[in-house]
Amino acid sequence: MKLPRIALCLALIPALVQSAPLSKEHKILFFGKDDRVLEKPERTPWRSVGQLETRSRTICTGTLVAPDVVLTAGHCFVDEKGRFDPATSFTVGLWGDEYTALSRIKEVQVDKAFLKGLIRKRDGLYIPPRIAPRDFAFVRLATPLGNSQGTVPVFSGDAQALKTLLARQNWTITQGGYPVDDQRHLRAHHGCKATALRGDGRLTHRCDTLEGNSGSPIFVIDAKGQATIVAVQSSAPPAARRKLEDNMSVSAPVFQKALQAFIAKSAKK
Asked: What is this structure's pTM?
């Protein structure tokens, strides 16, 4: 059943825009042109992808990987002053002024080394390369939305196995989330390319992402249409460096064990 978006929280509405014009900088961040398409969150795996909001009204994307667990990016929960910014809600099936379901948040786990290694400067917060591979987070929901929306499996092999999988797929991946230029609709880039799996576990890629896509899933989709999460979107370079750098995600082998421990902890409660 679809619910009216207004039922969420009146304070949330100003943070969401139906559609905003792309800036020159945003357009530069795309790889030649905007290859994103609207993807209605009614089928697998998109019905498991949702929108996270924090106390400061930061918007990120996350994916249900267990009935009550969402996988996303760690930097989503740090405000501009470096303070922890807890999540308040997770919404699935968001499409315009309607959504399918919403849950409040019980717990957020961000890697401790990531939080400790952040550098605060006058012009903002910086993530140094040594902690960039720790940019992942797990969110526990008060309502197990995965029971109705389904969950998406996370790749469970090591880095070499992931390289083998990507090579078998010709390094073709799919990414999707709720970007800043249209926070009420899910947009996906099908058939984009992963470009390298770095030694530190970060996966570079050329999927078209903007702010709001932080924490969004990077899928490998097999011939049967089965999607597996192989990475989580982390960052994109400044527009001035687009020709020099690809987008960056954190690959599943980096966080898989920590994620399974977090899920297991939930099962014991």
From this structure: 0.89
